[in-house]
Write a sequence for this structure.
């Protein structure tokens, strides 16, 4: 079976002064029927990569094969079989949901009935409402419906839930799950790690235009060697030295995030008693202590050496 | 669903554009009501009916009462009296066309007027004639005046073709240009590029929808001009229709090229004004473009709007037929083809 998407050493440099290397040698393989997540902070090259796969941006070098075809030779044939939802598209506010979907349906030689697509995103009650009157989550569902109306085999979603409330995010997740159940392949980008963990069979973690790590979410976390996080704070200004905790049994690595010390640990039941003993020994007073499962966020921090929020701030500057 | 023509992308794109337009009341207002208001206002302001009186200001001096009496008796004068300053203000503001001042004996009677202003010299001559006749002048030549206003030669007959041209220009440039840039900003163009949509379907639909909005607008101007002012086309309506359709296509293409690369509304608005201002001024909407120096006439004739208006005037006022306006139609077609092909080549989808 051919892969739904195969990217071979993709690069994309935006001209400018200095030129911006948005994508720097990316290889990706998306199996048919899977959901593949591209994760990373803003400016990591996620959108450029997905838009190369969508045929909207030309790669500076390398090639993206989609459904076994090349954009160079089979563009129109690929377009018939993919559905895309871009970041921040504002559909015409003055058209109704049904009119918008009928318009998009007319571009495809075959596909769903517009009202079927509306049903897939549960907007039957709003089908005659103008887009202007819809909430942000509903608008996003219309955008996803325009991607579904051509009955695609492959769905591209660029940050489908960014800026949405939790309820709306869950609705989008359900649409994606339904689409996969019917055999479709999904490539999505997100900077929500929980979204990727929940939806994706495989994720690629992007940073600075390169893939830092790629595997299933579970394996990525397992590869940390530390599936748990122990976080604690101590009283007042008495900060222990930055390496405090590093040598304790079961502790793999240490970092500090806005005053909170985070220990990656393999076994909580070994690390915590050792930590408490060390704190007592130094006459520090503990003000908080929590533990949680490691997440993809921790995987990002492990590979990128900084947290996701730092990454997005870096871009804003 | 694959029910034939209604699901053709061209039809759907056209319908979408058409609905958006109808659901934007301000767009409808500006495209239909504005030219009409302009026509009615200008038509009323320049209407020909009763001969308007000559406005004379009589300055303080000798025998001013007598002067006023003479002019009143002769008739056809509207007299303003006041201090010298009042008179000058009246002249400056257009309330008076001429100031008359009788001076001490031996001094000549003085007329003060703006010779460059329409009516200034006429007013001076009218007052002069009245005073000379009163003083005993006898004209050696017997004359008789026969005045008649020919429909077709009034200002409103001149104005309606200009307004049609202006409507075609504004509608095409704004309607196509603004809409495309707006869609580019909203990233809808890019979104559509991600579908199998054919690019030429999109462009054709944008232009076709403009054509359909513009034709009723022109028909309304023609009907109202006829009902209110009796403006008719002496050369018939086939030639008018040809000019209007070709003009609409021409300005849609110009709108397309203006919008082909702009990424902000400010940029496109600037480009639109840059394009339209020379034509507002030069192409003879409100006054004949013949008034410009001979040197720039060849340039003016090549502006996209000039052939539209000049051919409309030839047809409507001078009863020219389709064969007589071929040079103008050729210039319009030339603009349409060149701008269209260039626009399609340089068009930016994101």
């Amino acid at each position: 079976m051919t892969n739904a998407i195969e990217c071979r050493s993709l690069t994309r440099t935006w001209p400018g002064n200095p030129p911006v290397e948005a994508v720097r040698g990316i290889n990706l393989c998306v199996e048919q029927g899977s959901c593949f997540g591209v994760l990373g902070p803003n400016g990591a090259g996620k959108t450029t990569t997905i838009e190369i796969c969508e045929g909207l941006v030309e790669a500076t070098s390398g090639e993206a094969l989609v459904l076994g075809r090349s954009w160079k030779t089979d563009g129109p044939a690929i377009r018939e079989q993919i559905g895309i939802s871009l970041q921040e598209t504002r559909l015409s506010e003055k058209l109704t949901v049904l009119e918008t979907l009928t318009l998009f349906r007319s571009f495809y030689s075959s596909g769903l009935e517009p009202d079927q697509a509306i049903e897939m995103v549960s907007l039957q009650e709003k089908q005659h409402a103008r887009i202007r009157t819809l909430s942000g989550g509903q608008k996003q569902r219309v955008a996803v419906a325009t991607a579904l109306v051509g009955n695609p085999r492959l769905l591209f979603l660029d940050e489908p839930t960014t800026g949405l409330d939790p309820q709306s995010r869950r609705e989008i997740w359900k649409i994606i799950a339904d689409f996969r159940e019917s055999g479709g392949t999904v490539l999505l980008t997100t900077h929500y790690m929980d979204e990727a963990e929940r939806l994706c069979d495989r994720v690629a973690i992007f940073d600075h235009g390169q893939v830092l790590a790629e595997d299933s979410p579970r394996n990525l976390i397992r590869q940390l060697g530390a599936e748990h996080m122990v976080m604690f704070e101590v009283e007042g200004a008495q900060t222990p030295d930055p390496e405090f905790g590093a040598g304790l049994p079961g502790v793999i690595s240490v970092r500090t995030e806005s005053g909170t010390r985070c220990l990656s640990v393999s076994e909580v039941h070994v690390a915590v008693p050792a930590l408490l003993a060390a704190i007592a020994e130094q006459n520090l007073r503990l003000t908080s202590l929590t533990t949680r499962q490691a997440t993809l966020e921790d995987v990002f921090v492990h590979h990128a050496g900084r947290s996701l929020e730092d990454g997005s701030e870096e871009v804003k500057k | 669903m694959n029910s034939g023509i209604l699901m053709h992308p061209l039809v759907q794109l056209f319908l979408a554009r058409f609905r958006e337009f109808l659901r934007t009341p301000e767009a409808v207002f500006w495209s239909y009501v504005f030219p009409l208001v302009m026509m009615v206002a200008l038509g009323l302001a320049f209407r020909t009916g009763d001969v308007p009186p000559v406005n004379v200001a009589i300055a303080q001096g000798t025998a001013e009462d007598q002067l006023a009496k003479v002019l009143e008796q002769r008739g056809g004068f509207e007299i303003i009296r006041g201090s010298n300053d009042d008179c000058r203000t009246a002249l400056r503001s257009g309330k008076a066309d001429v100031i008359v001042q009788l001076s001490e004996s031996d001094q000549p009677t003085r007329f003060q007027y703006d010779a460059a202003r329409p009516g200034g010299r006429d007013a001076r001559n009218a007052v002069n004639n009245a005073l000379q006749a009163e003083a005993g002048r006898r004209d050696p030549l017997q004359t008789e005046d026969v005045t008649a206003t020919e429909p077709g030669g009034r200002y409103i007959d001149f104005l309606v073709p200009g307004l049609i041209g202006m409507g075609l220009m504004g509608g095409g440039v704004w309607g196509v240009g603004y809409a495309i840039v707006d869609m580019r900003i909203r990233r809808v163009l890019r979104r559509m590029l991600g579908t199998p949509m054919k690019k030429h379907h999109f462009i054709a639909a944008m232009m076709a929808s403009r054509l359909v909005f513009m034709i009723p607008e022109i028909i309304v101007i023609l009907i109202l001009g006829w009902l209110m002012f009796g403006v008719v086309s002496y050369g018939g309506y086939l030639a008018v229709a040809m000019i209007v359709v070709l003009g609409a296509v021409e300005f849609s293409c110009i709108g397309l090229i203006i919008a082909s690369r702009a990424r902000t509304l400010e940029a496109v608005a600037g480009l639109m004004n840059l394009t339209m201002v020379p034509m507002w001024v030069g192409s003879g909407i409100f006054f004949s473009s013949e008034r410009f120096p001979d040197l720039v006439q060849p340039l003016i004739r090549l502006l996209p709007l000039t052939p539209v208006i000049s051919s409309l005037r030839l047809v409507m006022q001078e009863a020219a037929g389709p064969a007589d306006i071929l040079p103008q139609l050729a210039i319009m077609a030339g603009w349409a083809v060149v701008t269209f092909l260039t626009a399609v080549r340089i068009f930016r989808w994101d």
